[in-house]
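Sequence in, structure out. First:
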Amino acid sequence: QVHLVESGGGLVQAGGSLKLSCVDSGRTFSDYAMGWFRQAPGKEREFVSRISRSSDSTDYSYSVKGRFTIARDNTKNTVYLQMTSLKPEDTAVYYCAAMSRPYHSGTADPNDYAYWGPGTQVTVSS
């Protein structure tokens, strides 16, 4: 049983930073690409970033590129999302997700992710 738990969300002023963490348990973490998605009120869930299982490949949405950094520590079964220069439009619930297929570099399609955490709220005030 795969279990994902995010942490690190909170309230921050515009221009500030937050670091999200997601711990994965229940299978071989290092075999699977991981992703971060977010959902703002009244909007659909959107792709934020993904990282391959060995960290040799990453991808970001246009809206966060240059401000957010994804990383993972396979010894700790943890994926991170470092968020800097936060904007009010970054306000959302942030979810980490694990790919359904092993040995894949990851995608931006939420349908390719089989396991999701409960989410952590990030609120950026102006």
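Second:
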Amino acid sequence: QVQLVESGGGLVQAGGSLRPSCAASGRTFSRYAMGWFRQAPGNEREFVAGTAWRGLSTYYTDYADSVKGRFTISRDIAKNGVYLQMNGMKPEDTAVYYCAAAGGPSSDSRGPYAYWGQGTQVTVSS
């Protein structure tokens, strides 16, 4: 049974940093695309960042325009997951952040994704 568990959300002031992480179990995801999405109240879930395997130990990373240059997605091999380094945070980054993993070996960092975590709340105060 595949499980994705996020941690590391919280409250931060504008300009600050957070690093939520995602630990996966039930399958090895090193060759599967994994990503982060977020959903703010009243909004649809949106893509934030993704990483897809390109062979050997190379991964492609992809970001939404709204977070490019501020957020960095990286693989966490020990946790069989990913983490998201978020710097220069803004109040508009406030949302529930979800980790996602593809259902099979894939090269598309934006999905489709078959597995989802329960989400972690990130709140940025102005």
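Remark: The first strand starts at residue 3 and ends at 7.
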